[in-house]
DNA sequence: AATTAGCATTAAAT
DNA sequence: ATTTAATGCTAATT
């Protein structure tokens, strides 16, 4: 059995969810950090928008504006 | 050290 | 040009 702390696991979970959300988003209307934060809240993760932004950076995902395509 | 609140800055919308 | 929305910055908190 793993000896990882629960927090380490959940931060990985959150990052996985963020990746999925961005991969499946409508590229004409990309999800903002705020929107991602709301989605996580609905899934039961109460994490601040600034933290979402930092996770996004750690995942090398650019800000919503730059993900938008014509 | 990681997360967050409050404010500052920048880009987009009107 | 003004207002609003999205993101960044830094200090405070835990």
Query: Tally of extended strands?
Result: 0
Q: What percent of the residues sit in helical stretches (DSSP H or I)?
A: 55-70%
> Which parts are unreliable, with pLDDT below 50 for 5 consecutive residues or more?
none
Structural class given helices, strands, pairing? mainly alpha
Annotation field: number of helices: 4
Q: H/E order of the elements?
A: HHHH
Query: What is the mean predicted local confidence, pLDDT?
Result: 94
Explain what this protein looks like in three dimensions:
This protein is an all-alpha fold. It has a domain at 39-70. Helix content is 61%, strand content 0%. It has helices at residues 6-24, 33-42, 49-58, 64-67. Helix 2 crosses helix 3. It is elongated, with a radius of gyration of 13 Å. The chain binds a DNA duplex (14 and 14 nucleotides) through helix 3.
Summary, kept brief:
With about 70 residues, this protein is mainly α.
Secondary-structure blueprint:
Elements lengths: L5 H19 L8 H10 L6 H10 L5 H4 L3
Helix pairs in contact: 2-3
The protein binds a DNA duplex (14 and 14 nucleotides) through helix 3.
Features:
70 residues, DNA-binding
């Amino acid at each position: 059995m793993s000896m990882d702390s629960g927090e380490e696991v959940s931060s990985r979970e959150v990052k996985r969810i963020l990746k999925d959300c961005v991969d499946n988003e409508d590229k004409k209307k990309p999800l903002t950090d705020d929107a991602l934060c709301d989605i996580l809240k609905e899934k039961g993760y109460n994490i601040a928008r600034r933290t979402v932004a930092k996770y996004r950076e750690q995942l090398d995902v650019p800000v919503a504006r730059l993900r938008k395509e014509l």
